[in-house]
Amino acid sequence: MDVGSFRDALSQWASGVTVVTTAFDGLRHGMTASSFSGVALDPPLVSVCLTTAGATHRMIEHSGVFAVSILGHDHGPVGRHFAGVRNGHPDGAGRFSTGRWETAGTGSPVLGDAVGWFDCRVAQTHAAGDHTIVLGEVLTVGTPRNAPPLIYHARLFHDQGVLHC
Fold it and tell me: Which of 11, 69, 102, 109 is most buried, most CB within 10 Å of its CB?
């Protein structure tokens, strides 16, 4: 099986869109991720899958904390910006110029108008090929507003059935 066919098949799975963020040594970093899931209620755990070679992974490894902001239907620009699709800042610092960011208790940035966010401490990590599965113990949550989610399907963002390229 070739990687292209594998990616094509995976792209048919629709999922919500999040931005995973962290802060360490005065620097903030974040990335768009659709590989987010609730794991357990007691203790409250979530998971994210991060490219092991990525900057966000390295910073979470050093900081031991991260946050996950769930994007709403109108957050396509934020999702694209943190995915690195937008011209300009390939590094983490410039990515925070899009959206209204606040600081959670761990110091990790959270999107102020997200439909939900989770502030976490790393509980466990598990190597998984070229990615790392990060389990986070949820310390605090927020639900700033009630809105439909941003959906990712076939490598595109969708808002209630409307395609946003």
Answer: 69
Check residue 44 and give left, alpha or beta (phi > 0: left; psi -120 to 50: alpha). beta
| DSSP class per residue in 31-50 | EEES-EEEEEETTEEEEEEE
Q: Distances from the Cα of 82 to the Cαs of 47, 52, 71, 93, in angstroms?
A: 19, 17, 12, 10
46 Rama sector, left if φ>0, alpha if ψ -120 to 50, beta otherwise: beta
Residue found by looking up tokens 């011209």 in the block: 87
What per-residue confidence (pLDDT) applies to 129? 94
Structure tokens at 126: 């598990």
User: What does DSSP assign to residue 2?
Assistant: -
Report how far residue 23's alpha carbon sits from residue 103's, in angstroms, rounded to the nearest whole number. Answer: 9
